Amino acid sequence: MNKIQVGFLMSYDYRLLKTSLPLVYSDADAIFIALDKDLRTWTGSKFEVENAFFDWLDTFDTENKISIYRDDFFLPNLSPMENEVRERKLLASKMGIGNWLIQIDADEYFVDFKNFAEALRLRNSYLKNPKKNQIQIAGYYINLYKYTEKGILYVSKARNQKFATNYPSYRTGRNTRQRVIYVPNIVIHECLSRTEEEIKTKFTNWGHSHQVNTEAFLAKWKKINASNYREFEDLFYLEPEKWKRLDYTEGENMTEIISNLNSLELLPSKTHILSKNFGQWFKFLF
C-alpha cells in the first residue's frame, strides 16, 4: 500500500508510449497498461498493434514493473465517455485502492515525474481512509497544437488537469468531482500535434467523439502555421474560447521540444496555485 501506481490506456496511438512511459518509469512502483482484449476503441473501432512494440516493452522493462491488463473495455450499449470511465475504474481497481492511482494517456509527457511523485508521498495521509477523504491531484497541461518545419505551436496558457487520486470514483474522464489539490508540475500534452488523419482518428474514437465537429475544426487547423498563428484565436475543439491563443517554440524532436518548453515560465504563479488550493479546501470543508 501507499505505492505510486501508474496506469496507461493503450489504444490506436500506442506508439506514443515510447515517449510517455520512460518519463515515469524510474519513480513508479508499478505500471499497468490497459489494452482492450479485442483491440477496440471506446466507439468499437478496431486498431492494430505491431508485435515489435511488445518486443520493445519487454526490452525496456528492466525492473519488471510493467503489467498489461487485458479486458473487455468496449460495451456497445454505453457511450464513448461511459466506456472511458468504465475502463478507468477497472484499471484503477487493478492498480489497488490504498495506493496513489495515477492515470496517464499515451500522449501525455511528464516533465518532472519525480517531483510529482514526491508531492503525492507528502500527502500519504489521504490514503488511510480514501473513500471517506477523496482527493484529486492536478498538474498543468501544455497543449501542443501543430508541428511546424522547425518547431511546435502550443496553446499559450497552461490548463490544469487531474492525474492522480486516492479513490477512483471517476465521473467524466479522470475527474471524480471531489476536492482538487494543484501542484506546480508541467505535463506536455501531444493533443493535436499530429497528422490530419491522426486527428480524425482521435476525434472519432475517444470519449468526446459525439461533441466534436471534426470538419469545422480541421478547416481552421489547416490554415494555421508558424507565420500567421498570431492572427487566430478561440482554438479549442469543444469550447473554442478555452484555448485563446497560440505560441511557438523551436525543437527538432520531442526531447528538444520538452526541454525548450520546460525552460519557459508557463506555470501559473505560486500565489495563483495557493489561491486555487485554498478555494478547494474551503469548498469541501463542510
UniProtKB/TrEMBL annotation:
Name of the protein in its database record: Glycosyl transferase family 2
Which branch of life, at top level?
Answer: Bacteria
Organism listed in the record: Salinimicrobium tongyeongense
Lineage of origin: Bacteria, Pseudomonadati, Bacteroidota, Flavobacteriia, Flavobacteriales
